[in-house]
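Reviewer 2 asked us to include a model.

Predict the structure of this chain.
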Amino acid sequence: MFNHYFNQKKVLVLGHTGFKGAWLSQWLVLLGAKVIGVSKDIPTKPSLFETLKLSEQIEDHRCDIRDLESLKTIFEAASPDLVFHLAAQPIVNTSYQSPVETFETNVMGTVHVMEAIRQTPSIHKAIIVTSDKCYHNEEWSYGYRESDRLGGQDPYSASKASAEIAFHAYFQSFFKGTHQYVASVRAGNVIGGGDWAAHRIVPDCMRAWAEKAPVVIRSPLATRPWQHVLEPLSGYLDLATQLDQTLTGNAYNFGPDASVNASVSHLIQGLAQYWPNANIQIDKAGAVHHEAGLLKLSCDKALHDLGWQPTLELAQTIQLTSQWYLENTTHQEMLEITQDQIAFYQDQAKNMGQAWALDAVTT
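Predicted model (C-alpha cells):
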C-alpha cells in the first residue's frame, strides 16, 4: 500500500488516542511506520486506543497542545519525518459548553503545532486536519469547494475556520518556498467501529442497543454524506505520499461520492438491521443548538491533484460499522477485527484500481 512509502518512517500523530487518530495509528503500524503518538488524555471510556492496546505498539506521550514548550520538547526528541495533526476538541455540543477551551485547543493548539513543525528540521511533510464544518454553511445542495468561504455559527465550526486561516498564514509566512511541505485536510461525518464519543449518532445507537434500550434521535431528517473512517484516512495518507513543492500549502476535501447523502433516519435504519430488537425513538423537542441541515463536500480537487476517490458504498460503510460494534459486544479480539477491516478496505481499493493500493510500476 502507498508504494511502501511509510515503511520505517518516523510518523508523529497528534491526537492518537481519539477515534480517527487510533485508526490512523493502527494503519500506520501495519504499513511499517514507527509511530509516535501525542495526546492530552484518553478522551472516552471505553476507547479504541485502549481496545487496540496501541500503547504497546507505538511510542505514547501525554501532552496538551496548548503547552507549546512541552510540545516542542517532544518534537525535538522524536525527530519525526512526518506529522499528522488530529488533536482537537471535536464535539459541536461540547463547544457550546466550553467555548474558550474549544478555541484555545483548535486554534492556538494548531498554531503551536505549526510552530513546533517549523522548528523541527527533520520534518519534511505535515498534514493538518481540520473539518468540513470550517465552511460558512449556506445549506447548498452541492458540495463545498476548497476555495469557498470559511466561517461558522457555533464555536466548534468557527474554531476550525480560524485554524484554517492560521494554517494559511503560517504557510505563507514560514513554509512557502521551503522543503517542509504542509497541507490542510477537511472531512466530516465519519463513522466506524470504536467511536465512543458523546453526542454522536453512531456511538449513541451502539451504547443504547448493546443495553437493549431505545436510542433517542433529535434530527432524523438531517442529511449528511456519511463515510467510513478509513476513507478520509486513505486520503490523508495518499496526500502525504504525494505532497511536494507543487501541492504544498493546499487544502483538500475528502468525502464520499457526491451521490452519498443520506438522512440520519436512513443511517440508523441501516445500522439497526444488524442488531436484534433495535429500538428507535424520535425526540420531538428537537435540537437545542443550531445544527446544519445539509453539508457536503466536493472532492474534485483531490481527484484531480492526487487521483484519490472514495472506495466504499454507503451500505458497506454501515455494515462494517455495525459489525465492528457487534463483535465488540461478544468480547472478540478487536485488534484482529480492526486489522481485518483495514485489510478488507485495502482489498476493495485494490480491486477498484485505486492508485494508492496498487504496486508502483517500475521500468
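The chain has a mean pLDDT of 94. The longest strand covers residues 34-39. We have added this to the supplementary material.
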